[in-house]
Amino acid sequence: MKALVYDGPGRRAWTDRPKPELIDSTDAIVRVDAVTICGTDLHILKGDVATVDHGRILGHEAVGTIEQVGAAVTTVKPGDRVLVSCISACGRCEYCRKAQFGQCLGGGGWILGHRIDGVQAEYARVPFADTSTYVLPDSVSNEAALMLADIVPTSYEVGARNGNVRPGDTVAIVGAGPIGLAAITTAQLFSPSTVIVVDLEPSRLAAAKTFGADVLVQPGEDAVAVVGELTGGLGADVAIEAVGVPETFELCAKLVRPGGHLANIGVHGKPATLHLEDLWIRNLTITTGLLDTSSTPMLLRMLAAGRLDTSRFLTHRFGLDEMDEAYDVFARPQDSDALKVALFRQ
After folding, report:
1. Pairing of strands 236-241, 170-174
2. Tens digit of each residue's pLDDT (9 = 90 or more) over 153-167
3. Which helix (H) or strand (E) holds 114?
4. pTM for the complete prediction?
C-alpha cells in the first residue's frame, strides 16, 4: 500500500509500505476512505515532536471502513463506516475511567501517527477499536465527519470548555487557522457576547469573519489596545491560544482580564515565558491540554441533527495519491488560502 512516511525533520515521502495486520485482539484494520492533514503533522515535520521516530506513517484524522477486527472487538464489524478518533483509549485504565482518554495509561492516548503508524495511508491498524472508533450514521458524510476526528473536539474541549466560556463573555482567539476557526465555532455554542480574533494573515481573518468573529484585529494593530477598548479596559473573559508559538501565548496572557481564563490549544515546540511577576496578582486560570475526545459522541449527534456545520473548514480536496501536493498546499496557507485539506479514496 501507499503511505505518507516521516523520515526526519523536513523529509517526507508518499511511498510503499506493507499493509498493516492485526496485532492485538482489540485491533481493527480500517480501509482509509477520507483523511486530512493536521497542523501537528507540520510540527512533526519541522522537528518539534522529538518522540516521533523516523519511518513513522503520519496522520491521526480519518474516516474509513472496517475491513477486519480482532477476536475481542464487539462494537464494530467489517463493513461499518467509522470515524477514527485521533485519540485511542484502552477503556480500562484510571484515566480512561474518568473519560480522560488523552492521558490513557493502557497504551492509548495520542498514538496514531506519533507512537505507532498513523492513517495517512491506504489502510491503517487502529488499536482499541471498540473505544477508539465511532460508527457513522448514514446522514453524516465522510467529509463532514472528518472534522470531528480532531480539530472540532480539540477546540471544544481544550479551548471553549477548558476556558470556561459562558454566556455574555468576551472571547479573544489568537490564531485563525483551522483550530482557531474551530474555536470560534465551538465558543459560539456557549453564547458569548463578542468574539475577537487576532491573526497576521488577512485571508485567515476573512475566514474568521465568515465563521462568526465579531471583531478582527488586523496585522499592525495593537491587540491589547483593541481588546481593552472593547471591554472598558478590563480585557477578555477568555483568551484562547490557537497557534503554538511563544509570542502568541504571551499575547494571550496580556489580553485576558483579572479573574479570566487563558486556554492554550497550540502545540508548542519552544519554551514560552510565563510572566508570573505580572500574573500572580491577577487571579488567572491557565489551562493546557491534549484533547480527550470525550465530547465526540455529543458532537457527532449535533452533526447528524444539523446543529453543527463542519462544511466551511474544507477548502481543498485531493485524491489519496495526491498526498504530496496536499501537504504543499496545506503548508503554504499564505499562498493557497488553505484551511483544511481532505484526501479521498478514488
Report:
1. parallel
2. 999 999 999 999 999
3. none
4. 0.94
